[in-house]
Please model this.
Amino acid sequence: MSNLLRAELVKIRKSKSLKVMIGIIFGFAMFSALIYSTIDNKTDGALSFVVDGRSIFTSSFSFSNNVGIVIPIVLIMYLCVEFSNGTVRNKIIAGNSKSKIYLVNFIVVTALGALYVILNAILSFLIAVIFFDYGKAINGAEVVHILKVTLLGCLMYISLFSFVTLLAMIIKKTGVSVVLYLLFVIVVSVFQIVHQLEMGGVLEFIFKVSPLGQMIVIMKDSISGMDIVKSLINNVVITGMIGTLGTVLFQKIDLK
Model:
């Protein structure tokens, strides 16, 4: 598996898409800053969204913001091209098992996606500090909070990348996979709105253990060690379940 993984990483380093995506992330970060700069008040209407540097930084991890939508779509395109150009079929002919191919693709997508997420977070933080009132003194405690937010954000996105891997590896077609992902984003957005209403029982439990619930934790004024432990456990379980399902389904796909 190491040779297969090494080959994928070399291919990514040579790809121009990496540099293009970095430019897109920078562009979206500046665009978001421009949008926030047009808001005069400290609250955004009924949502009571506090527009300061700290909230801009934490909201950069949201699934439904600009980069939160673009990054998974780029990863879907990367995975689906592997099928359209026959790369996956050639890997199987070369003696690689389907489970190994699926795992390597998940590792590569997660590493690449995490790089994009962290880059977006860094740019958002710099913009928040330079162009906006951050809202709090950036001392030792705040630096620790920033690192906690970044850790939780990465954990949250790993679960999302496992879903993106499953979607692209099973559907195999870029257009269909992107449409299905956008539908997923719409459902997520609706679920977030519904959660603002009174919700209990199974739906409340699902929300709390899902990445959506973890986004609420990221937006908290203070993140405890227990919040991190719960997030780690939740994301390991979710990623493991989706990864296992994806591997089983991929084994049944005919690639001829």
User: Anything to note?
Assistant: The CA atoms of residues 62 and 100 lie 31 Å apart.
